[in-house]
Amino acid sequence: MSLNWESQAQKGKDVLNNSIPKQWLVPVDRLPPASQKSVVEFPRSSGLLSTHELLITDMTATALVEEMGKGALTAEEVVTAFLKRAVMGHQMLNFATEFLADEALARAEELDAYYRRTGKLVGPLHGVPISVKEHISMKNRTCNTGYVAWTDKVYTEDALLLQLLSKAGAVFHVRTNQPQSLMHLCCSNNITGTTVNPYNRTLTPGGSSGGEGASMGFRCAPLGIGTDIGGSIRCPAAFCGAYGFRPSSLRNPATGIKVASSGQENIRGVVGPMSSRSIEDLELFQRAVLDQEPWDVETSLMPVPWKNVAPSREMTVAIMWDDGWVRPHPPITRALHFAREKLVAAGIKVVDWEPYKHQHGWDIISALYYPDAGAKQRQVLAQSGEPARPLTEWALSYAGNKTLSQEETWNLQEQREIFKDEYHGLMKARGVDFIISPNYPGVAAVMGESQYWNYTAIWNIVDLPSATFPSGLSVDPKLDALTELDKKYVPRDGVDEREWQKYQGPERYEGAPIGLQIAGKRYRDEETLAAAKLVEEIVSGNSKSKL
Amino acid sequence: MSLNWESQAQKGKDVLNNSIPKQWLVPVDRLPPASQKSVVEFPRSSGLLSTHELLITDMTATALVEEMGKGALTAEEVVTAFLKRAVMGHQMLNFATEFLADEALARAEELDAYYRRTGKLVGPLHGVPISVKEHISMKNRTCNTGYVAWTDKVYTEDALLLQLLSKAGAVFHVRTNQPQSLMHLCCSNNITGTTVNPYNRTLTPGGSSGGEGASMGFRCAPLGIGTDIGGSIRCPAAFCGAYGFRPSSLRNPATGIKVASSGQENIRGVVGPMSSRSIEDLELFQRAVLDQEPWDVETSLMPVPWKNVAPSREMTVAIMWDDGWVRPHPPITRALHFAREKLVAAGIKVVDWEPYKHQHGWDIISALYYPDAGAKQRQVLAQSGEPARPLTEWALSYAGNKTLSQEETWNLQEQREIFKDEYHGLMKARGVDFIISPNYPGVAAVMGESQYWNYTAIWNIVDLPSATFPSGLSVDPKLDALTELDKKYVPRDGVDEREWQKYQGPERYEGAPIGLQIAGKRYRDEETLAAAKLVEEIVSGNSKSKL
């Protein structure tokens, strides 16, 4: 145990500070006051970005690639615009762990040169800036995974996913923050501190891909990369008014993504795309990766190509109003009603989803997160002597201080498989193709309060592909006020009570967007994104921005 | 612990004895003497089966279905012929744990009635008798998995695989023996005793699917079902002059297959087909199962349909002469040379395969077989008080009496994944599509001596689909005698020495067939069987028997 974890942590801070492209820093006196909650309008209102840069940074990745393919935009101007916006965003949100400006611009120049030479794009992600969660390792760079002890750990290879994205033409311009232990639906660590939500800086951007949430919410990149073992892609997407996709397990390559419990397979984490603007961009990302057959390198992956699936109105969508354990807050319930009305009006068949043993699912997954009672994570904390943050302690408390025996682990895995098969069978028996549900009991949580994971973790345990999208609605001071009936709500148990009491009223969540989640059957990743696209279009009317 | 495990074991013996169709028992005085080693000619030489029955039982499943489809054979006569042969085989080999004569015949009648009514077959396995390893559970029947404690355990569902095969028209007529703990490459337990090899009854049929090995070798069924976590399909196939296929993991459904360490995923066992006559039948089985999309019920399976792949001579086949640890016995090396010559003569590109860290692979897999130090298996043994058999102690010794911590388990799993990806990368880098290798250091082992697993287990750890087929050769008293050079062989270590000393000379293995193994790249199951078919045709000249 180091006597001075702070000096070790400083190494991580230095990586960040030394990487910030100073030329784009907003003068401190032009930044909004710390008391200003929402900063999402700042890029436009500040006058610091040109109209052209605002146009670019409001575009989808799909549209950007299209324009670059026509020669109407260069990779250099695209990357520059997003870098500027990212630096600005970082000053207000503290979402970055390292900027990669020089490499990104050099890569953009290469891409432009290739285009000038050949008239062709390098690949389907040509010139698309992508922000990357820090624990996805990069060649010759540090990778700390949110641990002070690892601030000077350096790897010799890019993570396989980054290699593939790079071949497809993507440009990595910024790496993003994550919580200590990666096990918070929040985003704070002892290295680069706490990331805040661009819609309301008193709220968390969610986690563990919280830096990505902020990056997407502020449009520091059209696409980002998160990881998810209990909601870590979907919660930050929902909290930040963005898009996220948790693919089925064993589709996207995990080689080179660093976690404390390396080799743990009891509950599989997945890596997946986040997007600031559209479901279509999530598809673009997935197709670009899977078209390169990652299973021919990371052989545990399923050898299943990405299929082209067109959205179809011939589907049955179920709405899960409540998971039977924790009642969602009023804005969430309002958005579900809103979605239902829009879908019914559009002629989609909508039914209610009766949750099936979600508490049982949580009992399994929470026990399997830490079969070692969190020993490995505590070991890495102890290596530097850094204090465990409150939400780390919270997550570790799932383990209940008890190491599972191998037999107990096997029993839980067997239960997991039974539960997963039962859940799938239930969707078939009920004739339900997709389930729309909350991502979280509330909208973006107040900093430090995000304790209930099971609106997202349930799809991890049953391994359903699931996408998060904005409903188009935000918290409304009038519509979301507690009614007399709400005030009389008698919680089912202590957990329900704890979560319900966090609401208090819409004021606490001023300006927060309301995200929804849609899950499809296992391995129907393509169908799930296709349905998400149609549902989002119907619900929020989002038709994307194009030049 | 029961004071009388023998009376508990008797329950398993009773299941068997009560099930034997007495009308087909060969009178004791017509059986060959116990001293007669080979009994494979007995069905023909004894005069106890009609010419028609001999014809039927010499046919492949594919040919049988074809004939039933033409109305040239009825399911009833097919099932009857195989039942008779199975009863005869059991008397000489002790391979069965339960006969299912009444149900099989009733099912055959149903199938015939269906055919008479519609002129159609029920499915691709219409009327095909399949022998089934005992631990694949059957509705309302006991399933002991080789443990005395479980002799009266009854399940309420057929294993998912059996449900699918049954829908495809298969008829289950006999259940087959397995060793205590399922972890011997041999076949003896304290319930129904020891199964012997039809080619030489002083030898083991292999294991753990040893009852299946004997069943295939004696042609008690055209198809059988085995399971394999380290060679348990391929060894008995090789030892008994038959065919076996270990598919990639997560393709065939495992629901309802009973093992002591249920829920264990550290090393995945697989279930797969065995065949008495042909590679083609292994394909028939795989297609019949996967065409029913088992992943829509057992959701962990890969949603990958069975592809039609035609054999192609445009392939590079490597020959692994030796795994770098244990030198194969002379007959095996002779068969590899024979195969090489035939393949080269047929214009196939053949290279040598330099093994890659096979001992490292064994270190990983053998540790991961028993992360609980075998506690669970000992627990089930203790439940009845039955003594552990010598090869059970041998297998449990892999665990080294040490329970792995969760972190140690994760580390090994991480190493497993790295090794698997490296091995796959090596095949690509070397331009090798398939690897032909031994299944075992020798031909069928002398009873109790089968200790070295790594010619098959290596493909379990790197998860390559692999098929076993007969080379067409058998042990030859002259060709396989130890040369002066052989006698001077200096083993690499104690393991190599132990295995080499088991050879002694061809006399010890009189009549034993020599099997070979072919492995393909991960998930290229279809390509592997297609290549196996072509290779076998070239090497052994087997063109199958048809009516």
From TrEMBL, chains A, B:
Enzyme's top EC category: hydrolase
Family the entry assigns: Belongs to the amidase family.
Pfam families hit by this protein: Amidase
Gene3D superfamilies in the cross-refs: Amidase signature (AS) domain
Span of domain Amidase: 77-529
GO terms assigned for molecular function: amidase activity
Protein name (Swiss-Prot/TrEMBL): amidase
Record has Phosphoprotein as a keyword: no
Amino-acid positions noted as binding substrate in the UniProt annotation, renumbered to this chain: 182, 208, 229-232
Keyword check for Hydrolase: yes
